[in-house]
Amino acid sequence: MTSPINLHAVKAIYLFELARTWRTLFQSIAAPVISTSLYFIVFGAAIGGRFTAVDGVSYGAFLVPGLVMMSVLTESVSNASFGIYMPRYSGTIYEVLSAPISAFETVLGYVGAAATKSIVLGVLILLTARLFVDYSIQHPFWMVAFLVLTSVTFSLFGFILGVWADGWEKLQIVPILVITPLAFLGGSFYSISMLPPLWQKITLFNPVVYLVSGFRWSFYGQADVPVGISLAMTALFLALCLTAVWWIFRTGYKLKN
């Protein structure tokens, strides 16, 4: 019986994108792990000793979920946007579009590879964090669920960004001016309960808050936002990204022109 999905085509795109990781191993894996380790050294070890526990958790351990989530979402956007932008830039995207492969299979290959790299990166950062701080994971299933959901959602967002960008400047402007500030202001380094009441309300408009809060809950059972709301907001953003990707292939926006 013939499979409804062209697995050979999906595998070809998926493995090609993964192979790019090995060609840029330092940039894709080593650099994010090293930079995150520096955060643990500076904030966790040096500065963290001057802070009291946050919600009953040592500051170094409190940082772990936030730093993992910050790295995963930024790398998801970067990997997926670059993955689809390069075929557009070189013109090889037309070979993909003319091949007997559906839009779903194309997205599955590109986004699946980007999400896989982000998940591997998140696991490596978690393992590296053990060298600096001691942490626990109370809900390992939900930890994995939030990690995978975040990787897939922001890889889809990166895919959209890679299609939208028509130059290297545009490809970098959203991660630098939007994603990174949202990640830093999303509770990666602090609990939003530490903010004044007005800023607590303003912060709730930041989608990264729900990702970090839900992910931190899976570690310590404590969250700034109820975990159900975190899941619902993440699922909503995922649905919006899926709708945008569907529209891109439905209209051929910047792919067929």
Automatic annotation (TrEMBL):
UniProt keyword Membrane, yes or no: yes
Alphabetical keyword list: Cell membrane, Membrane, Transmembrane, Transmembrane helix, Transport
Subcellular compartments: Cell inner membrane; Membrane
Pfam families for this protein: ABC2_membrane (PF01061)
Transmembrane segments: 25-47, 59-87, 107-129, 141-165, 171-190, 225-249
Mode of membrane association: Multi-pass membrane protein
Domain ABC transmembrane type-2 intervals: 23-252
Primary location recorded for the protein, binned into one broad class: membrane
Top-level division of the source organism's lineage: Bacteria
UniProt xrefs under NCBIfam families: PRK15066.1 (NF011648)
PANTHER family xref list: INNER MEMBRANE TRANSPORT PERMEASE YADH-RELATED (PTHR43332), TRANSPORT PERMEASE PROTEIN (PTHR43332:SF1)
Assigned protein family: Belongs to the ABC-2 integral membrane protein family.
This protein's name: Transport permease protein
Lineage: Bacteria, Pseudomonadati, Pseudomonadota, Alphaproteobacteria, Rhodospirillales
